[in-house]
Amino acid sequence: MLTPEQIASYERDGYLLLPELFTPAEMAVVRRAASDIYAMNRPEVWRGKDGEFRLAFGVQHYHPVFDLFLRHPRLVEPTRELLGGDVYCHQYKLINKQPFGKLDFPWHQDFANWSKFDGMPEPRALNISVFLDEVNEFNGPVIFIPGAHKEGLITADVLPMEGIDQDGAHTIQGRELERIARANGMVAPKGKAGTAVLFHPYMPHASSPNQSPWSRSTIYLTSNRVDNHITRPTRPEYVAHTDFTPLRAVADDALLTYVEEAAAA
Amino acid sequence: MLTPEQIASYERDGYLLLPELFTPAEMAVVRRAASDIYAMNRPEVWRGKDGEFRLAFGVQHYHPVFDLFLRHPRLVEPTRELLGGDVYCHQYKLINKQPFGKLDFPWHQDFANWSKFDGMPEPRALNISVFLDEVNEFNGPVIFIPGAHKEGLITADVLPMEGIDQDGAHTIQGRELERIARANGMVAPKGKAGTAVLFHPYMPHASSPNQSPWSRSTIYLTSNRVDNHITRPTRPEYVAHTDFTPLRAVADDALLTYVEEAAAA
């Protein structure tokens, strides 16, 4: 459970860093599962022009470790607490920034997509990113503007976003973003593998390419309050889920138990 | 003059950070001169497709402040000391990474260009970058691999570089760069306006786009030992100078005196 200070920090800043929420042993299980995904050929697995893995959507549907991870109490409980009720999984993806890769993301707010393409009524959702690898200043950390979620949806200076996973999504730029960034500053949370970052649907975020030899693989889980479920899905089910069943937490040691049972089988 | 520790640090790491080498008052003079350059239309001033200023070569030839700055004792003396003799200016440019701009640089070593295109015999030169604006982790700082200058010229996994100011220059990538970066780590020197960074011709370096609202304007001065002057210039004179006259230092207060005299005139 989150402390009152952590809840206040999320509400003030629009993000919350939970350093090393998962142990190295747990993250080793998750990284092995990610390696399985990298090798898969499925419609949910998207690659760049060079054939390089970029991201995979809906990973709970074709890997049991990611299904367990989605329901992990250390992810489900803080989300229920911050959103104030039962939640379901709206989107769940694995993104890998390869060493010396080109993948980057311009400034954007996720709620713009969820509203426009999926018909999500209100920003009663949140993202959790979990670092599968250590994130440092050289491998393309996500940059936030603390407190900028209070600006709501930014509609000035918007351009269509280019990029393989953002069909028509919008990019924020220009004077409005400048005003908000000058007023609030920027922060790029870093940490060891197993660290998690929760952030608000209105939080503007961006990231640079990975300039380093160190992979930066990350899970992004979007949880939405059940009574805020989407109403006009236009994207594939694996991009915007339509199963609104509440997430129920598995046991806290589920990842390690899974490996032990798989080894015994 | 540099301390023995600073000289040892440069030789060990291949770069040396000199925090706030110039005062805010001096940098205000240099920034005003840079603003004059941004507005100029000359062959030496290069812009992107959007008309945005990117860089200007040979700025000493058309702005008196940059001519003074080139000869500033706090730049000339450390260079003479590290290179062990008289030096001349091989290249001198102003680069501006605009707020939320696209300008970045892939991994490369400058000596590859100086040798191939200009016929510089040996790496008896060095770069000094001087920060006209504060450099932070969000506005595209230059990344180094400490100690990697000892690798010499990296010839494996080389690709032609794309970019408006690097006609045919090569980009380092792949396993060789990975090996060197894993062995040495990375560093991105930051600091207030007026900070200088000296770095070796063999130092691999790269930088990401400016993701912030804060301009990142930088002077890059390449000094070469006079007895190592170039022998086969193929690029415009403003890119690779052919005047090998040794740089003689002006007075230490030359920038402020210039402004006073200009105001009195």
Automatic annotation (TrEMBL), chains A, B:
GO terms for molecular function: dioxygenase activity. Keywords: Dioxygenase, Oxidoreductase. Its cofactor is Fe(2+). InterPro entries: Phytyl_CoA_dOase-like. It comes from the Bacteria. This is Phytanoyl-CoA dioxygenase family protein.
